[in-house]
Amino acid sequence: MPRTHLLKRRKLWIWIAGIAGAIILLLAAASLYLGARWKLLAGEKIKTVVHKGSKGLYNIRFSDIHLNVLTGSARLDDVVIEADTLVYQRMKAAGTAPQNVFTIKLAALRINRTALLTAYFKKRLRIRSIVLDQPAISMVNRKVLAKKDTSQVSKSLYDLIRGNLEAIQVDAMIIRNAKFDYINANGKTRVINAFRNLNIRADDVLVDSLSEKDSTRFYLSKNIGFNLGGYRSNTKDGMYTMRVDSVAGSFASSRMYVKGLQLIPRYAELPFSRRYKVQKDRYDLSFTEVALSGVDFRKLSADGKLHARKLSIGPAKVAVFMNRELPPPAIDKGRNYPHVALKRLKLPIRIDTVSLKNISLKYSEYNPIARKTGSILFNNLRGDIRNVTNDSLRLKQDHFARADLKTLLMGSGAMQLKINFDLSSDNGAFTYSGSIGRFDMRKLNDLAINLGLVAIDAGIVDKGDFSVTANQQRASGNFNFYYHGLKVKLLKEEDGSTRLKQQGLLSAIANNLLVKDANPLPGEALRPGRATYLRASTASFFNLMWKTLFAGMREAVGVGLVPMKTQKQAQEKVFRKMEDRKDRAGRRQERRERRQKERSDKRGN
After folding, report:
1. pTM
2. Tens-place pLDDT, residues 302-336
3. Which of 2, 74, 252, 326 is deepest in the core (most CB within 10 A)?
4. How far is residue 199 from each of residues 134, 138, 226, 256, measured CA to CA in Å?
5. Dihedral, CA atoms, 115, 117, 119, 120, nearest 10 degrees?
6. Closest Cα to residue 149, out of 295, 261, 298, 336?
């Protein structure tokens, strides 16, 4: 009995397997038959949908299409989607052309797990995913005078499907490891930005009667996110390498961020500067993170305008170096004031708040007379800049950007700084004011010795405050510095050496007759400082600010009677000094050669 029962069970399973196998074969045969029959129809339908859905602007072509009715999947090989240039020109003339035109090329496009029965019986097509692997995408941006809003394309898509379907829903549209080229064709030259390893994902894409009115959707999707990793390139002049660890953002979060942004000079400070014939700022930049939040992606896409609530920068390190041994360039650096440069920016922007966090800012100059580099350093720069914009409508409401910053001067003196930028000014007008807390003045020796040939032996700043009005030509203001115990040494270079030595007599005269060792002096009122600094055309925004503060400090310590050299006078002195060195070097070389010849003649005799 047990053996008979076992044989019966085995026959049952064989019978079930046979039926299942027959069903599988039948379904496979049906799938092959339907796939072959629908292949041509599906191919033509896809081409029609793309063409009509874009109002004739785009066409799609592919070498083959593979259908699997059982799994509801499809694959298109060697796909190319591109715009018809003749149709684009007609749309442009009619004012209905889009701002951005795309060309997409890829080896395969995959459509996975389509619910065919739901589509047939309920007229709702649902697709699990559409995947584009390693596509090459090109986007050309042209500003077009639109006669009506062409950004809302969902209505035409719904009109196209509603005769056969009530809705199309795609759970995820995925672009993996894409090559993306953004081409700005609005100027005389086409500006190309190339990106690699780009990934884009659109979740819950829906085309139905209501999706076009759904304010929570962007391009019919609940969320579109992107990320870009490992970007690296050299600048056109070959002097810098630009690196980015990652760039990412999403519509749902209204956020974009860049991590690991670096601008790396390819040469050290002096070798870098000496590759130019004129003075050229050398930048060394490293930003841990730069993040935009509250981004209006709709406005960015439709109008090409960047509106965001906040731009967060930092932690970061910024180092700027200048070599004063070279002649100044024949340009006016006043055009690079931050608010003046903002006006020239082609991208309309409006950022409510720029937030700085833990920025290290270092400005250095090479002094060819002392043959040394002096630096001024601001540690832990932080604070907010509000109303950063070049948007004409916003400027009519408020044309000032306001900075409220804090930092540590030379890593020690607590400093507060407020700057008001007049964004509508024709001459770069701005004002700045602030205060500084207690610090040891010897902290300034790196700057004072290497750039001014003055050493601070002792001195404590108790506190200070300042208020300055400035533009592209000049700056003037009031300065109050409270200090005590100031002693200085005047220095000069030793002939034929980079070492500096004290000028004893002049140092004694300076300390006893010119330099006031305290402010206020015992029994006297505070000596307020009033200074005006005229900017040379080659001086930068930052140079104007700190040189004006330096002029105010000179007034406070009592050396205001000694006129400051203009940049032209300082440069002329540099050239004379360098020529003297060349002459002395030439004479030394002549003496060496003469002595060598005399020794040679003696040995010959």
Report:
1. 0.73
2. 777 889 999 999 899 999 998 888 888 888 888 88
3. 74
4. 9, 14, 5, 14
5. 160
6. 298
